């Protein structure tokens, strides 16, 4: 196993960081790594906002549900889907691009582009001994996030990425058994097989929580998912996304 | 610069592969790397289909616009957004999850999850000396792809990933200047500044094409984007996505 794969497999979310800001050089390396990711038809449909202003960080932490690690970290990035550049280009080039920009296809492209870039940034940071945590919590209120970061239309914040040197330990969380996630040639939709696989996974997860909480927790994964998904969370999203000019047709 | 960052910055799309199939061990390492990526609230909302059947590969290559490297590679993965598992879990646990599953929020979560996983897979493969190419072309006809891979509802193929040992050379394509993609604290929406930055980038890209084609091509990036986006491509996407149970509310 090479060092890169070791870094990848060793990933855990870090939620406590040393009070040590990343240098400009480190930030540059992370952003350049992000930019090196593949991009659909060279479109590069994303923007990264690095947040240094403590007032803005505090506000973002509140939006994300008072997660202290949004405020306290080495650096905080917000990854955005961005077609604002392309709208401008359409105007400069007298080209009718709006139909495309507002399509579900381009919404997907921008999300995929931004996510590939973010994962490159994460791996780059982790390879330098830092820890990372994705912050989906900013999606609690994207209107407010857009205000904090002064985002124009055709730009949507997708998630934050807290980066820094880990303070304290965290552990690798077991993933679904490979057989549940990886199929060959066709999707194996057999319910009994899936259930058997997820039953085994539930046992793994129960033991994981049991061990780490001295017996206080023993959640099953399927139980967590059923509970989480029964909450009607962030149902404003469709309206917000379309209001910003994405996913309209 | 460490080896991982070197691998990341050295990325180029590879479109010609040696006739050498990946071993099961290599496939396992790549899938495990994919699975190690962060996942929103532990949801793991994706599935990866490895396609070995030459008839299926041929069909996918046709769908993608007769791209030979979809057929000829070391291995071909299709990354899918997947909430089918979670629909089943809802039923097993007597939990009303449908509202959540059909939300734009969860559509975004599934796309982001799948993309983070795919980028880990890519970096893992590249760290082992392989090359990769994302195949957005499968989105030309997702109905047909779903048929080939026998995908149930609540599963959407997003893109392919061709992996294998490179045959022949390809070069790193210059990305947008960092200043165009990375902003600090607020989005810099100043049009004149953006235009100046993109003018400089256009010169870089023109030289890039000029050098590589012996003067035959000298496209500007903005010109490419204007042209590409004026085409109303894959406008069936919204209907398809909603038909499969995503992004409905």
Keywords:
249 residues; alpha+beta; NADH Oxidase; four-stranded antiparallel β-sheet; globular
Describe this entry's structure for a reader:
Chains A, B: InterPro entries: Flavin_OxRdtase_Frp (IPR016446), Nitroreductase (IPR029479), Nitroreductase-like (IPR000415). Chains A, B: GO terms for molecular function: oxidoreductase activity. Chains A, B: Keywords: Flavoprotein, FMN, NADP, Oxidoreductase. Chains A, B: Residues 8-165 form the Nitroreductase domain. Two copies of one chain form a homodimer. With 249 residues, the first copy, chain A, is α+β, with helices and mostly antiparallel strands. Chain A has two domains: 3-170 and 234-243, NADH Oxidase (3-Layer(aba) Sandwich), CATH 3.40.109; 178-218, no CATH class. Chain A is 49% helix and 13% strand. Chain A has helices at residues 3-9, 24-35, 54-63, 68-71, 84-92, 98-101, 104-127, 142-149, 178-181, 191-212, 221-230, 237-243, and strands spanning 46-51, 75-82, 131-135, 155-164, 182-184. In chain A, helix 3 runs antiparallel to helix 8 (142-149). Chain A starts with a helix and ends in a 6-residue tail after the last helix. The relative contact order of chain A is 0.16.
Could you write a compact summary of the structure shown?
Two copies of one chain form a homodimer. With 249 residues, chain A is of the alpha+beta class. Chain A contains twelve helices and five strands.
